Amino acid sequence: MQKFNRYTSHNRQSNSAPHLGYKRLVVSTIIVFFSFSFTIVQPSYAGLHQFPEPPKTSNLCQVTTAKELILDCPYRPGTGAVVGSPHLRLIHASLSFEVKGENYMSLSLQIANEDTFRLAEQRTVFIEVDDTKGNNYLRRPLPHTDLGLVGPGQTRTFSEKVLVGSFQPGDYIIFLWIPSAETGQTYNSKKNFLLGGESVAIPDSGLNKLAQFKVIHSSKR
Q: Is residue 220 part of a domain?
């Protein structure tokens, strides 16, 4: 075995250089590997924060206008505390009209029958607009909206044209009122028919909420 002293130290350095180079190569490879690993992993965690599950919020459509009101409202699946039988669910509603002057509201309602039978009784469906204090400003029957036409497992869209008047500045809520067909029970809120759909049915009033709008003063004279 070779012995190293101060005269052979130069040979020792030259002989160990490849070994040190190899160690440096290994260490560098490990550092690069871990650096690359963190580069891959970190964005995946960041992605989880960038795409959170959307919060479960009310499907109440709201709009503020000085002239024309346009609403296009989808409703999440869900029910109120009490819904009618058969179980009919409001899926979508769209409506448009001018808030100033007499004109026609265009209304479309998409309703699904999620039950095994259809509605047998004849109930008239009304569109209703109240202010937030409960005062009524509009109530019109919807002659083409026949809930009995929606068969089990079917979805049907009803379209209407409804005459409306002017609305003064303020907050309003649009409802569907489906009263009982029984004699003397028309204004019994407990006998009203309630539709399924998250935040649609309001058991206390017996009404089905479609949307909310606010009329503001127009800047034009």
A: no
